[in-house]
Structure formats: structure tokens, C-alpha cells
Amino acid sequence: MPDVVVVGSGHNALVAACYLARGGLDVEVIERDTVLGGAVSTVERFPGYLVDRGSSLHVMIRHTGIVEELGLADVGLTYLDCDPWGFHPVPDAPGGGITFWTDLERTCESISQVCGSRDAAAYRDFVQDWAARNERIFAAFQAAPTLGNLGRSLWGVGRPTGLPGVEIARQFMSPGDALLDATFHDERLRTALSWLGAQAGPPVHEVATADLVGWNAMLHRRAPGRPVGGSGALTAALRRRLESHGGHVRLGDAVARIETRAGQVCGVLTAGGARIAARAVLAGCHIATTLDLVGHAMDGQLDADRRRLRVGNGLGMAIRLGTTGLPCYPGAPPQVHNGLVLAAPDRLALRRAYGRYLGGETPDAPPVVVMAPSALDPTIAPPERHNITVWGQWHPYRLAGGTRWEDVGEQEGDKLVAAIERIAPGFAATVEHRHVQTPLDLERELDLRHGNVMHLEMGLDAMFAWRPLPGMAGYRGPLDRLYLCGASTHPGGGVFGASGRNAARVLLADLRPSFPGAGLRKVPGKARGALTAGAAVMRARMPWSPRH
After folding, report:
1. Which of the four pLDDT bands, split at 50, 70 and 90, describes residue 158?
2. How confident is the model over 411-436, as a mean pLDDT?
3. If DSSP states are collapsed to H, E and C, what string results for 497-509?
4. Residue 270: what are its φ and ψ, rounded to 5°?
5. DSSP string, 167-180
6. Range 4-42+65-79+229-309+456-513: architecture per CATH
């Protein structure tokens, strides 16, 4: 009998499984899919092309130390630095636009060429200020969101600025666009940073989105990375590490029910008919899926909890392309293909796209993020071919007027290709293969409810001690011996891993309280996820999508 059954093989679930197995527990991971890794997985989508199913760019996990702690390089994981990490095309501008290098001074030089020295100096100050703030915020993501943990991590955020606390709080509660308006003068720089900040989902003209913009200052501390062989190389390495500690992975046999006895979780029943007893179950799947699996034991509370989850109306869609060449952005250095190409003409276009999304309509001319992972890692495409991903944001899951995704998916894919053609003329003619992933496709293939790649919306009321719901925010589920991790939990979506490590610490503390470094002691039900008003002000939301 395993000590712990882990439901799902997403990267957070596998991170948790590795820490649990390293802590001496017998762990079995059960995955419904025949492909390991959930949204952090790679398949041969076209002959000779290794194409990511979800994420492509790994940002946050590189700041956590998890890769180093688990020794993933020793089991075959190799990261390539994405430097520059961003490029914003600007027609007829020097260098073809604004290039964001890991090196801050090199970035400021690009900004100066396009926007002038005043904005370059402002950007330098902005990065130094907000990176320092976010080091503390990032620390708050490394443990369960209890009052004590948040207080220790967030105490003194913004102190080096010399600003009074009420002003620091006001800045964090401001819209990201307001922060950009107050800091920079050139609309082209504002547009690039606004579109980058919006990758967490909420548009940064909304209240309390300033740190969606400010967090990206951390990208000058360490570059995002791409695993050699595709995004799924991370989860493949996690599996190898888990198995080195005696853990097991079962693919192609979904958990059909989480079993209980006397109000306590005691194992799982799989779709294949296997009954697996366990001391605890850790659900790394979507919180809505978890509630489905325990519905038989939840009485009338299940429907109430489901209604309180803010799954939202999707987020975006992607198209995966096999091409004979890379997009050619006039005047841009070839290295811009290493990271994110942030293609949006202006902030008005972002607001128009979001307005149509609210009305259940797709954007007329979608702003896009373009990635060319094969430019950095040629192993994932045939010789003289390239692997391109285009992400279009704010495509609703439920379409207005009875329109169905089955009928318009290819047409919307055409719009994404056309968006690249506008900034890289001739690109459309290079496309040989294409695979469209609508919000409905993301739900069907990856169990991303409503196609929301963050699981739940990343609004203020769904973060920290409110994610996924008050009472479940400390990685303990609604039943005894049921634990939670993944994008549905603190700190939210993204290729992060912090949720998995945090959940493992909590579980180890409960099952093996004498284990060194097991983590947090069990928190009484009423105190789970306690959060002060000050911590709420200081909350931050991490950018992710199927490509981060």
C-alpha cells in the first residue's frame, strides 16, 4: 500500500511526489492520460516535430531552486536561457523595436534608441525598484499562505523606496496601466509592458494589476528557460527523479473516485477498476475535478463550493505551426526568436480585444505572443524547419449567439497567422503544418476547465488565502487526509512548482512530523489560509499561459 496517491502528473504534482518520496514516503502517481505531464508535456504533433501541448517558456520555476534541490540536471534536464526574453516589434524603429535582454543596460540601450534616454533611465529605476519588491513577494509564494508566513515574507516590501506604507499599498492596488502612465512617456514602451503584464489573464487596466507589470523586473535577474527537447523534458526529468526515490507512475488509468472511510480519505478507485489504499491522497488536478472525485462524500457542500470557484470564461487559444522558416521582423536582430515576441499595436487594441471577450466574441485583430522554440533548440524540428507557437489571448470559451468552437476554430487560427503576417510579411507562406488549440480543445485534451490555463481566474479575490477557496488555501482539502496542489492553489498558474513543494511540506508535516524540514505544522480549520489586509494589498499574480 502506498503512503500517498497523487492524482495527476502535472509538474506541480510531480514536484510534490518527488519531495514526498525523498522524505521517505511510498508514492504512486496516477494519470488519466497516456502522456505524462499535463500542460507541461511535449508530443510529436507533426512528423519530426516535438510540439508542446501547453507551456513552452519556463519562467518562475527557475527562481525557486526546485530544479537544483531535486538534482534534475543529474537526470537529464537541460535548460537553455531565453535571452533576450522579450521583443516588441515597432515598425521603422531602430533595431526593429524594443528588445528586452536579461542584461538591464543592454535593454536600456534598446529602449533609448526607440523611446529616448528619459524612458531608458525610467526603466532602469523601475526594474531596480520592482525587482527588489518582488523578491519578497516571491518569498511569500514559497510556503502556505498563513498569516505568519505571509507576514515574515512581506514585511518591509517597498521599504528601500523610502515611501510611506500607505503609498506602497496604493501602488500595489493601482491598475498596471496607471503605473505605466506614471512611469513612462512613450506609448510603445507602455504597450510592450502592458501586454507582457496581461499574460496572467487580467488586463492591466483593471485595479490591483500593477505588480503584473512590476514582477517582470525579475526577468533581469534570471532569464526564462526552455528545456532541451521541449517543455515535457521537465516532467520527464521529474518522473526519473521520483523513480530514483522508489516512487511509481501509472499512466492511462484515471482516478474515478477518491475513497473515504468515516469521513477520512483512505485511497482511490481507478477507471480500470483498481482499488488503491493509501494513508493520504494529494490531488494535483483541477480543483473542480477534485470536487467531482469526492462528491459522494461532500453532502450538500459540493454544489456550493463549485459555484464559488471562479473558473471564468476561458483565457485564450494557441496555434502550433511547422514552418520552413522563422518570422522575419524587419530590422530585428536574429536573437529575438529566443523569447517572447509581444505583438500588439497599442494598448487600445488590447482593450478592444478584452471588450469583445467580455461580450463572448473573439477579437477582430488579435494581439498575439509569438514563440519560436526551435530557434533556440533545433532538436524539436526537422532540419531546415521550425516549430512556432502563437498565443492569442482573450478568446472566450462560451461564444455569443450560439457560435460553436467546432465551427470557427480554424478561422480563428487563420487570424493568429495573419497577426504574424502583419509584422513579419511573408510568414504565412512558410506554414506547412498547423494544429489549432481552441479553449474547448484545451479543456478536452488537458482538463483545463473552460480552457482557462490558470485553472481559476487570477483576480484579487482568488489569490493567496482565497485560492481555491477559503478553508482550502493551505493545501488541505475539504476532507481529512486529502491534500491539494497545482494551479488551482496558491500561488496560482504557471510553470512554477512552488505549489507542489509547499503541499509536500504540509503533507510531510502531517504524516511524518518528525521528518527534518517537513514544513508547516497543521493549521486548525478556522485558521487555514489566514491573510491580513496588508498581505492582501501585497499579493502578486504570476504570469502564465500555455506558453510560460
Report:
1. low
2. 98
3. CHHHHHHHHHHHH
4. -95, 165
5. HHHHHHHS-HHHHH
6. 3-Layer(bba) Sandwich (3.50)
